[in-house]
Amino acid sequence: MNYNFADRVGTLQPSVIREILKFSSVPGMISFAAGNPAPEAFPTKAIKEITERIMSERPIEALQYSVTEGYVPLKEAIRARYGELFGENDQIIITTGAQQVMELTTKSLCNEGDTIICEAPTFIGSLNAFRSFNTHLVGVPMENDGMELNALEQALKDNKNTKFIYCIPNYQNPSGIVTSLEKRKAIYELAKKYGVMILEDNPYGETRFAGDAIPTIKSMDTDGIVAYAGTFSKVISPGLRVGYAIAPAPLISKMTVCKQISDVHTAIFSQLIVHEFMTKYDYDAHLAGLGEIYRKKSDLMTGLLDLELAPRVAYNRPSGGLFIWCTLPDQIDMLDFAKKAVERKVAVVPGNAFLVDESQPCSSIRLNYSTPTDEQIEKGMKILGELLSEY
Amino acid sequence: MNYNFADRVGTLQPSVIREILKFSSVPGMISFAAGNPAPEAFPTKAIKEITERIMSERPIEALQYSVTEGYVPLKEAIRARYGELFGENDQIIITTGAQQVMELTTKSLCNEGDTIICEAPTFIGSLNAFRSFNTHLVGVPMENDGMELNALEQALKDNKNTKFIYCIPNYQNPSGIVTSLEKRKAIYELAKKYGVMILEDNPYGETRFAGDAIPTIKSMDTDGIVAYAGTFSKVISPGLRVGYAIAPAPLISKMTVCKQISDVHTAIFSQLIVHEFMTKYDYDAHLAGLGEIYRKKSDLMTGLLDLELAPRVAYNRPSGGLFIWCTLPDQIDMLDFAKKAVERKVAVVPGNAFLVDESQPCSSIRLNYSTPTDEQIEKGMKILGELLSEY
After folding, report:
1. Single pTM value for the model
2. A329 — contact with chain B (CB < 8 Å)?
3. Which has fewest Cβ within 10 Å: A249, B139, B236, B342?
């Protein structure tokens, strides 16, 4: 049979990162390409206690159907901890990871051809979610403190059918950039001025290990124009698939209908686990320990970057998140470098994978320090240094 | 702000059943409206053992990111048990419940305006998934042994843009009808003749407690035209949200890309639990026990139907599944009956909720026997009998 697929998926490809990750299973491959939390950062002891308690005390609740909106006590725990994210008319929905927030927001808001303005570069999973609804994507270049504001305003002027601006203000994936308070305010004002929404994605906010926390855009939202995506994937466990959206009630209502026909509800056992961890354990102490793990791993990788690759390779020292964005000197062909690195058994992600148009020039690669062991970081960075010296 | 939603969700409403289920929390309400498995059918002891073992032996595997396609040993266990479902070029993907199969299949195959042919009545969650992609739905009336074949062929002739025929051949929701072997073959031949696919949904196949098993349409598929939706929701636990699709490799490939941008992967802890239960416990003995529970509950409800409501109310005795489809006498206004039942604290689902066009006339209601207790079934059926006698 000749399968005729829908136009929306005709050109949609599996993410480049996933293709690269296939190399990770090659024996001896050192992967700086993933975005997995460090295994030692998981609160396994606590989750073991929690699952035993749930299966002893309320197994039916963990196994029966639940409501699409999410487990009520978990929603309440999130509201109690992150009260500043809730505007007067905001509601919350629990999602199957933050990825689902991208899909539900786009499905609820965008007709085919509608514009979404994105940071350039940005998270490939979100780009592909947007693409899968045949939306029109416009990238706005990133500066060291966030989107270039003139380019953002121009994009808003040029695309009257813009539905929302997508941004990751904290420790952006892949650039690691933190959007300044000033720019967060400016982005909010521009969205308001042009009558579009903002989709603020904050998976890494609580991985902060240096610098001060900057208020989220959602916390400034007095006009009901910001949808916020949160997740426990980077701070508790990604395998449980628990995220959430906080947004104006009419949008949450549409997202709920869309979620109902997508997966009915998020695994309730997972939701119970996250709820117990949030409310019966010292969440702040856990986050502090997690920050310490990532600070050490980041220090190890940046120290080796300084030793082996800088100053020819430029990068920003991370203060949170899982990634370092490294820019190669102009005369080096980035894709050639990434290809040769894989041949020497070090996987990195070519930066163009994070662009709206992957064929645009890009001289950066993304390195991850949360997944590899310290030994792998040491060995892998040495290999990258040797490779650089050959150019 | 004036929120402008996408056309596809503009008219999409929460399911009527969910609205009715809100009454279930009213104190004293007896709900025959849900579709939850009986709590006593859950293998809670086994799952308690399994979760303890997983969290002792391999907690990182249960908590870390996993692959979009699904946990490989679970896919292998499904292939080992249900080998007849796999054609030469078929693949499998693990999904977040069978509901996600409906969404991924539609997203992969259907442009806006494409036709999907459905049984009438059929499962409301699937109808809404199809609607959410702005597809054109055509209902084919059900007879006691499955779809009316002339109407099906006429629908195929009239709608050249048909992408697939959606059917639930075993213990259909809501009608309880089992499609005969003869009709399964005929539906397959018609799909082949008109060059369309079949989406075969089989959530209830293993809840059989009477009669012989009839081969699935998928098991006859030598042409690679059937996508099959399976799930563990009705036989192990719906709260874990583990289902699967078996379909030709090109379709599974597109569904995988769509799933990656929807929820990345299905909760891996849930997948590990289902895998251990399938491979380390006596699955057939579990299913036999489950069938016994449902046979008893079905017998209780049909006995009371005979006593209180038949022959004015017509129904078919179930041989599996969770539902009884009851047709009221012509002179009774079905919606009025359902409304009065709720006022007397018995919730039933008005049958028109399961039609492509809910405004079409319908004199049936759906009763569920798996969720209420025996006492609730006795009390609720008596109330319905009293209500009927007042007409």
Report:
1. 0.96
2. no
3. A249
